[in-house]
Amino acid sequence: MTEVVSLLHASLLVADLKRSRIFYEGVLGLRPSSARPAMRFDGIWYDVGSGQIHLINLPSPDPASVRPDHGGRDRHTALGVIGLGALRARLDVAGVPYSLSLSGRAALFVHDPDGNVLELLEVEQNVEQNVRLEAP
Fold first, then answer.
1. 9-122: which CATH number, 1.10.10.10, 3.10.180.10, 3.40.50.150, 3.40.50.300?
2. pTM of this prediction?
3. CA dihedral for 57, 43, 22, 52, sign (positive or negative)
4. Are 131 and 79 in contact, with CB atoms under 8 Å apart?
5. CB of 31 within 8 A of CB of 46?
6. Which of 105, 103, 84, 69 is nearest to 29 (CA)?
7. 17: Cα within 13 Å, side-chain hemisphere
8. Per residue in 14-60, pLDDT tens?
């Protein structure tokens, strides 16, 4: 019997790696992983709990202009966050627009500089200790 048991990583295409690092590291507080395998293209890996986010520095074949404004109605990567209010304040200070979850959950949707959508969902520390975004 086969069973899918975990999400190992999510890959996101980014056109400007430097600009994306400012968002992922400076705004979201992620730290680059030292375990990045060598690839034939530029990119960066971030450890997020037991999984990773892989930013791939390649042109996107999917123009952001045709995607919905509200990230909850678009394909997205969901990340558990401890301290969503503090992260929301950092997004406000950085001038990064977001939309709140329409379901009423403690969650928001934000587009990265390349239009990739992240759902940032509040989780309890004792339940999701391995899914933690650190403040810069």
1. 3.10.180.10
2. 0.80
3. positive
4. yes
5. yes
6. 84
7. 11
8. 999 999 999 999 999 999 998 777 778 889 999 998 899 999 998 87
